[in-house]
Amino acid sequence: MDILCLIVTFIAVSFLTTILCFSLLLLKIYTGKSIQDPSYPPVNGTVFSQLIYFNKLYDYQTQVATKWSTFRLLAPGHSEVYTTDPRNIEHVLKTNFDKYSKGQTNQLIVTDLLGHGIFAVDGDKWKQQRKLASFEFSTRVLRDFSCSVFRENANKLVGAVSGLSGRVFDMQDLFMRCTLDSIFKVGFGVELNCLEGSNKEGSAFMKAFDESNALTYGRYVDPIWELKRYFSIGSEAALKKNIKVIDDFVNQLIKNKRNLLAQNQDCHVKEDILSRFLMESQKDPEQMNDKYLRDIILNFMIAGKDTSANTLSWFFYMLCKNPLIQEKIAQEVRDFVGDKNIKYTVNDFIENITDAALDQMHYLHAALTETLRLYPVVPIVSPLTNIIVVG
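^ that's the sequence the OP posted. Answer follows.
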């Protein structure tokens, strides 16, 4: 009888505790949120509803945005405001940008991977990196180097696709490998060779980099990730292991590049982003240390790798769905790059793709722009904790 009473008591206490915790959570979500106040955006549920639509979240948010251009999702302690109104976006991202920080929550989630890179910082560090990046990317040396890298890897991509003729293959995976090779060469001045699969260390880095991004993103929906990080278990243990692979690989590259710069043995050593930033670090070696350089370069890699690869994937998907547009684009490329009376090799054709030629391809530019409109590569911009802008 005593055991039976103990079991019943345990169940009752557990049930009451659950009800109490749930009630407190509801109070924290709905209290003080001005739900009926017309001066605030309308409420479209709580942040927990996003879990239901997690696998098609952007489609769901787009559907809601057709009803309300600006709306709120309630969360414990705050509200999240989503907006597609151009006036609000301009207010947050342009005219009043300094007033909107990324917020401590976002920074806490991404700092382990992104460190103090441009996507994880505010204020002076953000301005410093933005100013330096803006200057460096406008220099002719870096632009010419980037173009030569993109041409070279485009040639390799053509070769890889030609070798798969008649077979089913994952085009997005090829784009991911090709863009990572390109961004890595432009960023570090090093051949990663992911597309050809000949660099084991590079392949390990790529795998760790992709997994770290996914695990970091998972923190946004994992309420106990900080506890898991404290005990180094589960996804957090995997993230820690992957970040160590990234750090070891990147730190060795920085060390090697510093040695090359010191010895001045490589005539092309100052073309890549890392070399340009290393030269800048000589002005302030305490702040621009190896850890800070690692953070800066990884942030640029994240900005360039997945964004380019995903846009290319959607672009070719749309071309396959619209063969007439595909032919118009192909004809425009032939008009401005190749002479139909001359038989070009792939190398010759790629060498003829100049900035001047690209500037004349208005139809290609329009098709790429339409692809970005339909499938935005950065569908959500989150400048701070309680306001999220949907682009």
